[in-house]
Amino acid sequence: MTAVTADSATHFAREWERWHHARVDRLRDPLGFLSLTALHWLTDAPERIDGIPGTWWVTDDKVFVTARPGDRLDHEGTRIAGVHIVRPAEGAPGIAVRHDDRVLEIIRRTGQYAVRVHDPASPALVTFRDIPSYPPAAEWVLEGRFTRFAEPETVTTGAVVAGLEHNHSAVGTVEFELNGVTERLVAFGAGDDLRVLFTDATSGITSYPGARALSIAAPAADGAVVLDFNRATNLPCAFTAYATCPVAPERNRLRGAIEAGEQDPRAERAS
Question: Which domains does the chain have, with CATH numbers?
Answer without folding.
Answer: 33-126 (2.60.200), 132-270 (no CATH)
